[in-house]
Amino acid sequence: MKLIFAGTPDFAALALKAIVEAGHEVALVLTQPDRPAGRGMALQASPVKRLALESGIEVFQPPSLKDAAAQQKIAAVGAEVMVVAAYGLILPQVVLDLSRLGCLNIHASLLPRWRGAAPIQRALLAGDDETGVCIMQMEAGLDTGPVVLRGAFAIALDDTAATLHDRLAGLGASLIVEALGKLPLPAEAQPTEGITYAHKIEKAEASIDWRKTAAELDRHIRAFNPFPGAQASLAGQVVKLWRATPATGNGENGVILAVDRSSLLVACGEGALAISELQKAGGKRLPVQQFLAGNSLQVGDRFDLPA
Predict the structure, then answer these.
(1) What is the dihedral of CA 89, 94, 97, 102, to 10 degrees?
(2) What is the mean pLDDT of residues 130-159?
(3) Which of 120, 206, 109 is nearest to 163 (CA)?
(4) CATH of 203-294, one of 3.40.50.150, 3.40.50.2300, 3.60.120.10, 3.10.25.10
(5) What is the β-pairing status of strands 197-198 and 115-116?
(6) What would the pLDDT profile of 243-276 be if each residue is shown by its tens digit?
(7) How far apart are alpha carbons 265 and 254 in whole angstroms?
(8) Rounded to whole angstroms, what are the CA distances from 212 to 128, 217, 219, 267, 290?
(9) Are strands 115-116 and 130-137 parallel, antiparallel or unpaired?
(10) Coil, helix or strand for 154?
(11) CB-CB contact of 267 with 255 (8 Å)
């Protein structure tokens, strides 16, 4: 099948790889313009662009799809369908209508739950029992289109945003190949009940509030791993918390109840949090034993509470 693929990050690159390996003709790849990154802030190609170039596929990087010239280039391909995965640009209706079979979006949630930009993190923060991927027929609304295929799995107690991302990316790649092989597929309208929105993650959300329950803070830490990292403050110094588990314990919010080689036990609004990996500003992610070698912490010390 002749298609256009639009995507930018690793999540999308895995889907593109699966589509190419399945033997479909990817006539054009759309991806966002190169961005400055790293310490030197040099321009870097997206994972999708790098894979496309390695595969000998033409790459197109318009800053917007509202431009008539960009729309004409897409139309000239004559693709039967467009596949979209974490592209990052709005597709105007004229672009959605250019392909005979429309545009299929790979969305990392069980729609209509978690429409929007950050479904993986929001599912973890909310304590959802399961998540999945929907292959959706795109329309003008935000992730409102009918679903042609879906798959689901349970969220594990130790899943982070990173591990969920990888599992969802793999599922999405498998489902889009299945969908392309069966087109045209019947589309099922999304339910009108159970709609939630996964708003973009803001760095300010990463701050730990020790007045919350241990279960909530455990989810918080996992949801912000790897980006932007859950942040706590200790004696005015920022410390990122990377791994922790809920535990039994009582005390004033934020107070260290116990210190040993494997964890710091910190009192929360309900229960306690056993922190096993953390990072000082400017330092490396370290297990507690190594962290304590360079940072003296003892029972009674207290993490700062947010204002």
Answers:
(1) 0
(2) 97
(3) 120
(4) 3.10.25.10
(5) parallel
(6) 999 999 999 999 999 999 999 999 999 999 999 9
(7) 10
(8) 18, 7, 11, 10, 27
(9) unpaired
(10) strand
(11) yes
